[in-house]
């Protein structure tokens, strides 16, 4: 064979054999622990109908640094591992996000998708189990408050027997300069009180006999909103937009697109409202205590389609959310 | 000649007086609802984009404004429709396999661009017939 | 009006040499390998997959906007799909074999020693009907193919395997000439191109008995597309590969730069299969514009849901529209033209006889659809490639979507190009296509001794097509 033919054949063989070898070889080299120094774990995020997170259970060693390589083949997803401080806002289809985690305490850490990726987005969760003895294990969580108090989250809600005629305003309530009784003004004691019960308590107090009903509601609004920190409310607003608004609506009225056709709706007690809660409905919201609301957020709706957020939110975040929910009815 | 005239001659700007229009567009895989939006030239257009399923976006050709939305977090674009014609709007955030073809249309009336193009086509046909006609 | 660019010495050296063409082919083959690998193993997200982006955006835009209108069928001379088959048939890549012999397995099996190739392509299939059907088949699945890297890779792999198999048994580039769906319409539209490979002086050919352009010689191989240069009048089956330039021992072949569309000036004796190709491509452009570019999401999703009952309804509608409605409407226009011309109605037997003889009025009028169809396809291509071409940069740095960044462009954001300008590009192209189409319709009437009125219905058909497309895109 002439030399030029040999040369040409060599080039073609490089293209047909060398190119694939080079491409795959490069990828293998990139992913070697030796090259990167850390163990690499690939997570693929798919729409829940196609499997959600794969894998959705990870086993890590306490103290070990692991590089998570997260990719999506279909839509935009997000990833949060609250217990490990991981917050990936956007997993763009076709791109790979790398984040290193080094868990130091053993325990179970929940992770979840944070960008709406379909009807079952709220089910797109997983768990990381961290074993090993480096550092003390996570302390056991105390039972949630609603459980300690024996409150039945699923009881049919009774409507508030009286609702405000105008939207109560916390600033107006503050301006009234009334000393609130301890059970209304102390945050720890207010938790078990529903706003309408607080209203009745203040209304019945002869000290407030000179105030109009609207003013008493203003006092209630001030009581509920006076202890909320601005940063906590800002965090709650972010969480609400990210996780709640899809079903409950950005306006809180319960008409969000993801809240239609929820699977559990048909099976529910006919007395229950058919759809996500409407936070602007004074009748139900004012009859619910903060601990009841927090319990619902923490535990979820037992088949109604309301997800549980106890594994993802800290206690502070849940109480901040409850305060934020109050602001749908109470003006600041 | 006539074709050039049809395409370029300034026509009087007829049409309704400009107003502010609020248009709600809902995005789902893989289309927009409504798929075609009609406004008048000079209108101030406020498009609020709501997504029903996943993260979507909206990019408007020609006006080059864009926004994105997912369930619970609507987006908005606001612009003055000072350019006449039809402008496609497309999904700006990858939302699945048919994403590149998730397309809608904004028509800014009285859509002289289309009228001119059609007139030019008819004139071009007539012109070609005249030029190449043999009895 | 033509100028022989191959008379320029350095151009002649380039065209006769084999390195340039081989070099470009190896490059396209390398790209093809990456397309297949990324399609099979890369991210299913089409926007960031090298396979989808470089085939359906970059290559398609290049083909429709640059190569076909200006360089005719020259893509085929550097296409990677027939290349391995060619090399196996020739047993060489860069040199010529004595006598230009080709080998196929069939040569061994059927002992046709000394012949150029082995099994000739079946007579019945020596037309572009298989290419028309294969294009329709691809069109049926296009909503899936264009959006699924895996489907793209599998279909291209299928093409190269079929091409290889065909080269092992049949002579020359039978796949390209008779089977490839791209080759079908690229060939028909390349008649517009301002380039052509033709004989310089037909009288020289008349006295030349060796016919080395067809048979081959020590300097090169016979035309891979089975063209006899003496009879070559249109670009339809010429990929401008230059073998004839190398083999002609009378130096009677030249590469010409000429006025565009010269091939269409003779509207007589046109083939029915090519006419149908023009009609079918026209219909396909409308189908794609309605389904893919239109606002109806249910239609798009159905078009992609291959195998579902709704998809079968869609497929039936597509086929009925493209194979029956559009050709039927065109046929009515031709008949109406005949009626306007006052010609007596032809008897069915006479019509069939005329078609066999190659004298079909229907096929001849379809010449007008060549510039019209190409203009419409250019307009359609502009509407989706310019918007998404910016994906080419990230796809280059991260072809598989595995998080690479080979050239630093992996994070470049999507930016539509020429966003508001597209209609201003589409309209002039469509107008030029329309004017040329009407001119050709009139020419067809005159060359058939018909009065000009006979061309009116076909002209109306062309005008309707353009106005229809403008309304789809701009109203």
Protein traits:
heterotrimer, B: 135 residues, alpha+beta, Immunoglobulin-like, 5-stranded mixed beta sheet, 4-stranded mixed beta sheet, 2 helices, 40% strand, C: 475 residues, mainly alpha, 3-stranded antiparallel beta sheet, two-stranded antiparallel sheet, 60% helix
Would you give an account of this structure?
With 332 residues, chain A is α/β, with parallel strands linked by helices. Chain A has 2 domains: 97 residues, Cupredoxins -  blue copper proteins (Immunoglobulin-like, Sandwich); 182 residues, Cytochrome c-like domain (Cytochrome Bc1 Complex, Chain D, domain 2, Orthogonal Bundle), CATH 1.10.760.10. Chain A has 12 helices and 9 strands. In chain A, strand 5 and strand 6 form a beta hairpin. In chain A, helix 7 crosses helix 8. Chain B is built from 2 helices and 9 strands. In chain B, the strands form 2 sheets. Chain B has a 5-stranded mixed sheet with strand order 3-9-8-5-6. Chain B has a 4-stranded mixed sheet with strand order 2-1-4-7, with no helix packed on it. Chain B is elongated, with a radius of gyration of 19 Å. Chain B starts with a helix and ends with a helix. Chain C has 2 domains: 166 residues, no CATH class; 190 residues, no CATH class. Helix content of chain C is 60%, strand content 4%.
What is the compact description of this entry?
By secondary structure, chain A is α/β, with parallel strands linked by helices. Chain A is built from 12 helices and 9 strands.
CATH-defined topology of the largest domain in chain A: Cytochrome Bc1 Complex, Chain D, domain 2
Number of domains of chain C: 2
Number of helices, counting only DSSP H or I runs of 4 residues or more of chain A: 12
The strands making up the biggest β-sheet of chain A line up spatially as 2-1-4-7
What count of structural domains of chain A? Answer: 2
Alpha carbon gyration radius of chain C: 23 Å
Based on CA atoms alone, the radius of gyration of chain A comes out at 27 Å
Overall geometric form of chain A:
elongated
Order of SSEs of chain C: EHHHHHHHHHHHEHHEEHEHHHHHHHHH
Which CATH class of the largest domain in chain A is shown?
A: Mainly Alpha
Roughly what fraction of the amino acids of chain A lie in strands?
Answer: 15-25%
Instruction: List how many beta strands of chain A DSSP finds.
Output: 9
Low-pLDDT stretches of chain A: none
Number of strands of chain C: 5
The percent of residues in helical segments of chain C reads 55-70%
Share of helix of chain A, binned? 25-40%
**Global outline of chain C:** globular
Average residue pLDDT of chain A: 87
Strand content of chain C is under 5%
Quick one: biggest sheet of chain C?
3 strands, antiparallel
CATH superfamily of the largest domain in chain A: Cytochrome c-like domain
């Amino acid at each position: 064979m002439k030399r030029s033919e040999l040369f040409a054949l060599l080039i073609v063989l490089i293209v047909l054999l060398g190119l694939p070898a080079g491409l795959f070889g490069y990828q293998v080299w990139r992913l070697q622990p030796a090259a990167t120094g850390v163990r690499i774990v690939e997570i693929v995020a798919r729409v829940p109908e196609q499997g959600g997170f794969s894998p959705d259970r990870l086993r890590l060693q306490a103290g070990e640094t692991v590089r998570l390589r997260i990719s999506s083949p279909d839509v935009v997803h997000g990833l949060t591992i609250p217990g490990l401080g991981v917050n990936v806002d956007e997993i763009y289809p076709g791109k790979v996000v790398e984040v290193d985690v080094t868990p130091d305490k053993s325990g179970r850490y929940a992770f979840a998708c944070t960008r709406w990726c379909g009807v079952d987005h709220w089910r797109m969760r997983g768990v990381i189990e961290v074993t090993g003895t480096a550092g003390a294990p996570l302390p056991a969580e105390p039972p949630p408050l609603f459980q300690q108090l024996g409150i039945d989250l699923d009881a049919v809600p009774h409507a508030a027997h009286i609702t405000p005629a105008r939207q109560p305003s916390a600033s107006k309530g503050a301006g009234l300069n009334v000393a609130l009784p301890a059970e209304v003004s102390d945050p720890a004691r207010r938790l078990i009180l529903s706003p309408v019960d607080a209203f009745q308590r203040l209304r019945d107090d002869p000290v407030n006999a000179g105030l109009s009903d609207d003013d008493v509601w203003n006092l209630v609004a001030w009581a509920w909103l006076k202890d909320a920190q601005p940063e906590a409310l800002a965090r709650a607003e972010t969480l609400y937009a990210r996780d709640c608004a899809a079903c409950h609506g950005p306006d809180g009225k319960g008409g969000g697109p993801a809240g239609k056709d929820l699977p559990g709706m048909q099976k529910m007690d006919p007395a229950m409202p058919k759809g996500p809660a409407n936070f602007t409905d004074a009748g139900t919201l004012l009859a619910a205590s903060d601990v009841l609301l927090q319990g619902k957020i923490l535990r979820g709706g037992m088949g109604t389609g309301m997800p549980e957020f106890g594994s993802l939110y800290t206690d502070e975040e849940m109480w901040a959310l409850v305060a934020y929910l109050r602001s749908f009815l109470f003006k600041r | 000649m006539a074709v050039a005239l049809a395409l370029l001659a300034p026509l009087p700007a007829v049409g309704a007086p400009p107003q502010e229009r609020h248009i709600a567009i809902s995005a789902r895989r893989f289309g927009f609802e409504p798929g075609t939006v009609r406004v008048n030239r000079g209108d101030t257009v406020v498009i609020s984009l709501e997504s029903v399923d996943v993260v979507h976006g909206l990019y408007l050709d020609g006006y080059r404004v864009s926004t994105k939305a997912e369930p619970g977090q609507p987006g908005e674009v606001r612009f003055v429709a000072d350019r006449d014609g039809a402008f496609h709007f497309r999904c700006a955030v990858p939302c699945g396999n048919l994403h590149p073809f998730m397309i809608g249309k904004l028509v800014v009336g009285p859509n002289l661009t289309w009228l001119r193009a059609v007139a030019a086509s008819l004139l071009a046909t007539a012109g070609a017939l005249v030029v190449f006609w043999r009895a | 009006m033509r100028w022989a660019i191959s008379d320029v010495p350095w151009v002649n050296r380039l065209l006769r040499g084999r390195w340039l063409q081989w070099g470009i082919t190896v490059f396209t083959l390398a790209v093809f390998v990456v397309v297949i690998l990324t399609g099979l193993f890369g991210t299913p997200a089409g926007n960031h997959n090298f396979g989808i982006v470089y085939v359906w955006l970059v290559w398609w835009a290049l083909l429709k906007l640059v190569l076909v209108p200006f360089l005719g069928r020259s893509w085929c001379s550097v296409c990677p799909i027939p290349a391995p088959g060619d090399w196996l048939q020739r047993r060489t890549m860069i040199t010529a074999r004595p006598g230009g012999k080709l080998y196929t397995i069939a040569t061994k099996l059927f002992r046709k020693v000394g012949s150029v190739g082995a099994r000739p392509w079946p007579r019945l299939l020596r037309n572009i009907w298989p290419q028309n059907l294969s294009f329709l088949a691809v069109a049926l699945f296009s909503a899936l193919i264009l959006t699924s890297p895996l489907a793209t890779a599998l279909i291209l792999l299928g093409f190269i395997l079929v091409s290889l198999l065909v080269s092992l048994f049949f002579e020359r580039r039978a796949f390209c000439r008779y089977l490839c769906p791209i080759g079908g319409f690229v060939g028909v539209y390349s008649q517009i191109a301002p380039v052509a490979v033709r004989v310089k002086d037909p009288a020289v050919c008349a006295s030349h008995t060796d016919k080395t352009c067809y048979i081959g010689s020590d300097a090169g191989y016979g035309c891979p597309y089975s063209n006899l240069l003496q009879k070559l009048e249109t670009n339809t089956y010429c990929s401008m590969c230059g073998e004839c330039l190398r083999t002609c021992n009378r130096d009677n072949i030249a590469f010409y730069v000429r006025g565009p569309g010269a091939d269409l000036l003779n509207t007589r004796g046109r083939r029915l299969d090519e006419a149908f190709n023009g009609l079918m491509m026209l219909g396909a452009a409308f189908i794609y514009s309605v389904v893919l570019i239109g606002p109806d999401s249910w239609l798009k999703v159905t078009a992609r849901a291959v195998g579902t009952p709704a998809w079968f309804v869609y497929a039936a509608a597509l086929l009925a529209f493209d194979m029956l409605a559009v050709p039927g409407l065109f046929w009515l226009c031709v008949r109406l033209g005949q009626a306007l011309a006052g010609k007596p109605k032809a008897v069915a037997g006479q019509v069939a006889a005329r078609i066999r003889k190659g004298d079909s009025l229907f096929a001849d009028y379809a010449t007008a659809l060549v510039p019209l169809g190409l203009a419409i396809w250019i307009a359609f291509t502009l509407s989706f490639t310019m918007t998404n071409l910016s994906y080419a940069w990230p796809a280059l740095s991260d072809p598989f979507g595995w998080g690479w960044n080979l050239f630093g462009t992996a994070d470049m954001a999507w930016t539509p190009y020429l966003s508001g300008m597209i209609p201003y590009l589409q309209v002039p192209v469509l107008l030029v296509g329309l004017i040329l189409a009407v001119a050709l319709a009139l020419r067809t009437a005159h060359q058939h001794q018909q009065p000009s009125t006979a061309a009116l219905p076909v002209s109306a058909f062309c005008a309707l097509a353009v106005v229809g497309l403008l309304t789809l895109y701009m109203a």
